[in-house]
Amino acid sequence: MSCWIRVRTRLAGVLLPGALLAGCVAGPDFVAPAAPTSSRYTAAAVAGSAAGLAGQGVAPSDGYWWQQLRSTALDETVRAAFLGNRDLRAMRLTLAQTDALTRASDAALYPSLSLNAGLGRQKLGAEALGSFSLPPFSYYAVGASVSYLFDFSGGIRRSVEAARARDEAQRHETDAATLALSGEVVLQALGLASAQAQIDSVEELLADDREDVRLAESAFDAGSGTRVDTLSARSQLANDEALLPPLRRELALAQHALALLVGCAPAECSAPQFRLADFSVPEPLPLTLPSELAHRRPDIQAAEAQLHAATADVGVATANLYPQVSLGATGGPQAVALRSLFNASAEAGGLTAGLVAPLFDHGALRARRSAAQQAEAAALARYEQVVLRSLGQVADALESLAHDDELLASERSAVAVATETLSLTRESYAAGNTGVLQVLEAQRQTQQARLGLVRAQAQRVADAVALLLSLGGSAPQG
């Protein structure tokens, strides 16, 4: 009994100082960086539908961000991509991996218990017993062992904190990948709609060209036109027919890209027929304040979590400068005969305590702490750059939308004027007051105005999509 009292007294002498230090954790505590303090995204108020939004916050609409475009086919395509895209699936599986590794790291905070059992046949020689000899014997043992690394400097807690922060960063990166995938699907669908709208415009133009050829040939047959007029009309038809193949190529490539995003080969699935009219830009456009942006964009949240992990790594490196205390205990019966294994006389056990303190390592531990501090500073710089880039993306989208409204108004006016001019020129040509060259020039102006309007409409939707994405539009969480 006195022996056990001495052991317990010595263990208490080891544990008591550690218990007093248990509340200490080496290294700096993580403090989240302050949110941007600016109240607007651009230096001056912007015009158009984005006017006034640069300096105030407008609550985002409910639902996922792409649903604000009010396209059922688009919503179904984005959801199909979430199910079938292999890159996103890999990100989710990587997230599951980091979740499991984080749970494994949490186990270091607690004692570990293991069950031990063994049997064997042993013969000891002079090396072990000297002049004393024992006959060969068998032994049997069963019991449990407990081990615990006493974390008085907080190194284990900091390592667990770092693992949890990296798991959080992976979660936000998965959210960012989900958001990026939805944006790629929407932009490819918009590319399909734009290409189809331009094809429709060119086909209308070709119908006008064929009408010009008919008018020129009728005038030539009637003796009021020349052969040059007929050839000019046919030449214009041939030139405009050359506009279709590049647009059809653009349409096909967008269909293939959309199929890959959804997760199937281009030959195995076909994209829906998207039209520009299917995309309805929300009015007013939702906009959050710069101070709220850091809490909405997953890439900013991921950068903050990486900074958190780097800060915890400094704590781990600092804790390694201090002694490490380990505790252990074993207990269970041991016997040389199986029938005696569970007798009271077979009980055996032990308690151990260990301490390892660095004395001389040629500055390696301090160098590792310095490296961790530099990594923390680099993570902070990366976080700040992500925030600045996000503010720039919102500002770019706002300015683009403001000028898109101006361009749309100009293109609509150009289409109206060109259409009326073309109609009057054709009437004048039919009456013999103008030549075919004037008709072809009026038609060329109409064609350019129509294609310009289609491109302006598509660009406005694309810039609205860019704004919704740059604000960290809502998407399913990883």
Average of the residue pLDDT scores: 83
The tally of strands reads: 4
How large, in whole angstroms, is the Cα Rg? 38 Å
What is the name of the CATH class? Mainly Alpha
CATH topology: Outer membrane efflux proteins (OEP)
Residue share in β-strands: 5-15%
Query: Looking at this structure, what is the CATH superfamily?
Result: Outer membrane efflux proteins (OEP)
Count of discrete structural domains: 1
pLDDT below 50 for ≥5 consecutive residues: which ranges?
Answer: 1-12, 18-22, 45-61
Order of helices and strands: HHHEHEHHHHHEEHH
> Looking at the structure, what is the overall shape?
elongated
- The CATH architecture would be Up-down Bundle
**Helix fraction by DSSP (H/I, runs of at least 4):** 55-70%
Task: Report on the biggest sheet.
Answer: 4 strands, antiparallel
Q: Could you give the distance between the termini?
A: 59 Å
- The neighbouring-strand order within the major sheet is 1-2-3-4
Based on helices, strands and strand pairing, what is the structural class? alpha+beta
Annotation field: number of helices: 11
Task: Tell me what the structure shows.
- With 478 residues, the chain is of the alpha+beta class.
- 33% of the residues are buried.
- 60% of the residues lie in helices and 10% in strands.
- It has 11 helices and 4 strands; from the N terminus they run αααβαβαααααββαα.
- It has a 4-stranded antiparallel beta sheet, covered by helices on one side.
- Residues 1-12, 18-22 and 45-61 have low confidence and may be disordered.
- It has one domain (27-110, 153-321, 364-470): Outer membrane efflux proteins (OEP) (Up-down Bundle), CATH 1.20.1600.10.
- Helix 5 (155-222) packs antiparallel against helix 11.
